[in-house]
């Protein structure tokens, strides 16, 4: 096979490299569980390059890992088994913004934040927004159907993709959908590529649907006593005439680690078991929201609360929520999970999860936060000081099985937005039935009969 | 095969019938091109019934046409070749509305309007809305990814489906998604069933995502000189701080037939080549919109315009748009097409379409209307009095080829929302490439290897 890699390198000079340092860098994503070990790296400039490279790999059965900004959290872009990393990083072209249809066509390697900047002068945005937007790429966002903090307002990435250009394993180029809002001409193949983590084809270009940039946003932080109060407040917020652009929550253990790690003061005088960050769009003025805030106090719906009076206060409140992930890693070793539940089942899920974990794993520190308005919980179990890293990670697998059993019992998903990749593959059966997995394998066989695209990811 | 139909009837007493009158009724949809000729009709009460019936048909290779409210316009639910019609009409259960997660689970046979009524007391709605909502069913809406007049505000049916229960051709029952907003666990199989017109499986239940009922709506009617002005006005409307809940257009020939058919007065003193119906959501009061309306006159963006002052005026304006389809059929014989274009290409498309048709088919009356804010045009060619019906329909096929060639040249779709079914099957290649069609066939083979589900629809 070594000869084939050499041949590939010779056929695509300046595009394919086997430089060791580059391979180590491009062979991994944000996860650090698997050591990178790719055989080669390709940095194509055009769709034609991608097509020619894939045709060569398909002919010779060479495995390929499609690669974006490598900000994924489930190992979907890790090349640990001698694959070719096919990076879209050089394909960053952005066409002029179409201000009639509110669309823009970009190459897959365009950086999320660059797309935002490209659209901003026209009063438009691509409302896919999350912490790693400075390095994540459009193609990777689409291939993983990325979520984030604004899903409650705008939905997942899936909703903001009009057209896709995709290269199949055999090098065939598909143009799917273009700039069309409507196209009911049989099964919609775009939808299969969105969220399939590079196992069915390589996304090379996309026509993105754009949204008007939001108007004035108002940010609240609330303290409440329990999860029931978080959900009760959610129902209350839905009665306002405004748009909910974020409804996030976190618990006191998250806040404690954040204040320990950063120069941040607790938001309220008294600690509270639960905190809610609410962002509303469309209020005529911040003052106009004060009576509503007062009424929440009066009716006992919150134990404390604050409404940001200007943008720096709003940013400070957001920092309490967005800083959590980094602070958990900076102050300890978290074992992360990203689960989704039907919103109506969140309370019973959390009660049973607490019961099971308190009984089986007493004394564990659990940091719970996330996009609760979408039913999405980030469950972080922190390593106790007295336990070694090895023991902690070994036990984590056992605990995951318990967590996922509770998730399944409540008809939830073991991966809300992070995907399956390598890290969750062994647990896929908690969310997908044997019949579904058989269909997924059948579809894989149709799109990639030789199985060269991201082998071993999502499903075997 | 006759013995098999008898056996099916005996195995499912009270569910399967071969009554001729019933077969004629259930064997057709809103199209009248193909004569119905089903062999049997099944009216299952439960998912288990559907599963058992499909398992029997799959074992014996009996063809099955899944059937909803039969309001389709492309023959997707027509049983013209001795099939079993599998109607979901008896499966109308609606579970209690989940007011925490804003979802409701219903059986596929629930009528669209009944779902609206079921959700209304909770201030919620399933925002899938079109003229045939009084008889269309949820399962059929999903299987065809139905559109309508509110797509610009809410998107297609696809956006309002959280979970699906689907029975495969072999009788296997899939539960996909449930009440989850987020579930990134590999390719999303739900998306394949949405819009696949009953060729991949039979939808038996769905968990619907609900929206808050809209607030105050304001309806305008405008007169403008040409399509460029329609699109210029569209850009202007997008600058207002309000939500666009409809942006529809029609031409003078549409209005002439409407006023001839119904007791309706023209909206303005002088006829105009183009009319735009605009519905806005979120204005604090109707009065608050008057200055904006005046500014449109002052800046010459419209030649005439009116703003409904109360709900009966708004309904009267809507009638001008919604009555068109019926008035065309009542005053003549229209040959209908339902095409979509990138919004940015609408003007050049219409110019070329007019050029081609004026040159090749001079004197034809063409009634153009539709959801122009979605790039969706309903193109209706009216039969001239001097031409026989037979000649007109024969020539229609030739004209369709010319129309679709212009659609293709502008990267449009030959079916925006009506689907492919039987009527557009021969033209599918104008929108889908040979590579795509090969993938569609491959997927069909995975889901329905014996090809019993809606054979001959969409693709062979």
Walk me through what this model shows.
2 copies of one chain form a homodimer. Chain A has 460 residues and is of the alpha+beta class. Chain A folds into 4 domains: 86 residues, 2-Layer Sandwich (Uridine Diphospho-n-acetylenolpyruvylglucosamine Reductase, domain 2); 110 residues, Uridine Diphospho-n-acetylenolpyruvylglucosamine Reductase, domain 3; 109 residues, Alpha-Beta Plaits (2-Layer Sandwich), CATH 3.30.70; 99 residues, Alpha-Beta Plaits (2-Layer Sandwich), CATH 3.30.70.2740. In chain A, 33% of the residues lie in helices and 20% in strands. Chain A contains 15 helices and 17 strands. In chain A, the strands form 4 sheets. Chain A has a 7-stranded antiparallel beta sheet with strand order 14-11-13-12-16-17-15, with helices on both faces. Chain A has a 4-stranded mixed beta sheet with strand order 1-2-4-3, with helices on both faces. Chain A has a 4-stranded antiparallel beta sheet with strand order 5-9-7-8. In chain A, a hairpin with a 5-residue loop joins β16 and β17. In chain A, α9 crosses α12 and α13 packs antiparallel against α14. The longest helix of chain A is centred in the C-terminal third of the chain and has 21 residues. The radius of gyration of chain A is 23 Å and the shape is globular. The two termini of chain A are 22 Å apart. The relative contact order of chain A is 0.12. The mean pLDDT of chain A is 96. At the A-B interface, β8, α7, α8 and α15 of A face β8, α7, α8 and α15 of B.
